[in-house]
Design brief:
This protein has about 450 residues and is an alpha/beta fold. It has 22 helices and eleven strands. α5 packs parallel to α10 and α18 crosses α19. The longest helix has 20 residues. It is globular, with a radius of gyration of 24 Å. The termini are far apart.
Length: about 450
């Protein structure tokens, strides 16, 4: 039994994006087309210039899994070579700057060409810059033969710069001394890489650079607030982010896109692809399951657990409860399952154990939600249209921390505006939410009686 429990625990790691063999198409329950199909088609249709996409969704909604699926699709079916850059490997989210993002792009382009096509691009600019800080790394440890050598330095060592303040300071001092910008040098390098692609006997002719985790940046440069930093990055620096001479995709915070800055992002970047939650209950009716969404989550778990049947791992009622209270957020459900595994020594996981696994999250939200938010949450829950106030900073905060979740009805409705919102199912279990909702309902009844 311990072996099976350990297998379930590791298969449900909430911090790892799904591998390609675990990927499940949830388009019906997300209310729209899948990212890979849409981007692939537009890339193939585009004949001039470079596309620049924004991609957004809730934390844990599966953005990285969708992006990695896009990488797989592009590699298999197109002449576009995808370069996936997970920016968390290169920058400190609490102390980021734009040039670090461009530097990460250059490193990953060089790495992909070397590992995928066995093409090693020399670049005097980047090699000179890294040579100036090389001793900071070699003094600590020797680069192993297994590491990819990029610009004369191990790739793993370049990623360590984010934790090495002295090396970072010296590197960017050297970069800032130049008359040409790092963006200019990056574009020269991309042109060189594209030329190499055309010279190779391979299927690839163009680059697509996919930058993940940008939405997690908390502080950019001198900006002090998270929203100010995100606004500065995506709006203040839009010409630079759009200035990459390759097709690009950037992840952007959902709260910023749903804020009053949304139309600006639309004007600067064009369409923003949104990944809603997987809809597992009906709009305005938390107790009415949406079968396609529940089926999608069940399929995801089947793939992850592999040889362990779901009926062996979970009581039926327990699995239904875990899916329902995830709110359609895969990472949340995985966290619940890991918590349940820690609370039992036998399988299947019972409904009581499943409820226990949800309790710590309920406690967290109960003690952390701002007191002024409860009335707004109650109002959302009883509203007929299930909408939030886009001009309300509180709503942006609650979107960002998953107190409120976003869904799309898609083909189920004829309305062009098919986005709706719901209170996180876990928040619905808190005493303060229940009290706020009762107060609101009673006040409405009293007012109706008076009238």
């Amino acid at each position: 039994m311990e072996k099976e429990l350990k297998k379930i625990f590791n298969a449900c790691n909430p911090n790892l994006a799904a591998e390609e063999n675990y990927y499940t198409d949830c388009r019906v329950a997300r209310g729209g087309d899948v990212l890979a199909r849409k981007v692939k088609k537009k890339l193939e249709f585009e004949e001039k210039g470079f596309l620049c996409y924004l991609f957004t969704g809730h934390i844990g909604s599966g953005k990285s899994s969708e992006l990695l699926h896009l990488v797989s699709v592009l590699k298999q079916d197109t002449n576009f070579l995808p370069v996936y850059v997970d920016i968390k490997d290169y920058i400190d989210f609490e102390n980021a700057n734009l040039d670090e993002i461009f530097l990460a792009m250059a490193v990953e382009v060089a790495d992909v060409l070397q590992t995928e096509l066995k093409v090693r691009l020399k670049n005097n600019y980047f090699e000179e810059k890294f040579a100036e800080i090389k001793n900071f790394f070699l003094a600590k440890r020797k680069v192993t033969k297994l590491e990819v050598d990029v610009f004369g330095v191990g790739k793993a060592e370049i990623q360590e710069i984010k934790q090495n303040d002295e090396a970072k300071r010296k590197l960017f001092e050297a970069i800032n001394q130049d008359t040409k910008s790092l963006l200019d040098e990056l574009n020269l390098f991309i042109k060189e890489a594209t030329l190499k692609l055309l010279q190779q006997e391979s299927q690839y002719a163009k680059l697509v650079i996919i930058v993940d985790s940008l939405e997690k940046i908390k502080k950019l440069g001198a900006q002090k607030e998270e929203l100010a930093s995100q606004t500065e990055l995506f709006i203040g620096n839009n010409t630079k982010l759009r200035g990459i001479e390759a097709h690009t995709i950037y992840t952007v915070p959902l709260a910023l896109y749903r804020s009053t800055s949304g139309p600006n992002l639309l004007q600067y970047y064009g369409e923003c692809l949104v990944l809603p939650m997987v809809k597992i209950f009906q709009r305005g009716n938390f107790d009415k399951p949406f079968k396609e969404g529940c089926k999608a989550f069940t399929e995801i778990l089947k793939k992850r657990l592999e040889e362990i049947p779901l009926e062996t791992a979970f009581e039926t009622e327990a699995l239904e409860l875990l899916i329902k209270y995830s709110g359609g957020n895969l990472r949340i459900m995985m966290r619940f399952i890991q918590e349940a595994v820690m609370s039992t020594d036998v399988l299947p996981i019972t409904v009581n154990i499943a409820r226990k696994s949800i309790q710590p999250t309920v406690r967290t939200y109960a003690s952390s939600i701002n007191e002024t938010f409860w009335a707004k949450l109650a109002a959302l829950d009883v509203s007929a249209d299930q909408q939030i106030n886009n001009g309300d900073l509180d709503s942006w905060v609650m979107l960002e921390n998953l107190t409120i979740m976003e869904y799309v009805n898609g083909e189920e409705t004829e309305n062009l505006d098919d986005i709706w919102y719901a209170v996180n199912p876990v928040v619905r279990e808190t005493g303060k939410f229940i009290a706020a909702k009762e107060f609101l309902v009673n006040a409405k009844v009293s007012n109706d009686v008076k009238q």
